[in-house]
Amino acid sequence: MNATEAGPNTRQLKVARQIQRDLSEIFQAQGMAMYDGAMISVVNVRISPDLSVARVWISVFPSAKAKEVLARVQDQQRALRGEMGRRVAKQLRIVPELIFYIDDSLDYVEHIDQLLKG
User: Fold this and answer.
1) Which are the contacts of 34, defined by CB distance < 8 A and separation ≥ 6?
2) How many domains does the chain have?
3) Residue 91: which CATH number?
4) What kind and span of H or E run contains 66?
5) What would the mean pLDDT of 35-47 be, rounded to a whole number?
6) What is residue 1's predicted lDDT score, i.e. its pLDDT?
7) Where are the extended beta strands (E) located within 24-82?
């Protein structure tokens, strides 16, 4: 069994948690006005075994603005990575590439809830 099959190691988990914390702070510092009044939460971060790519799931409230906010976040990907670099420069040799996704699990739960209510 190789490392990719075994799941994330302790180092990957620590780096992912740090990236999640830092990105949350960055989004909070930028303020809701930058995202047209939408609030962004960093829900999950998964990092590749070589720590070069971080997949970041964000939740957007209100969810109606999710696609628009995701597009804006993706446009700012380089600036966000630069800010991350300033924060993690002492801990990491390379700042991982950030790939953003929308976490729609809350919408899914709400949809199932509506179906169950009939």
Assistant:
1) 72
2) 1
3) 3.30.300.20
4) helix 66-75
5) 93
6) 45
7) 39-47, 53-61
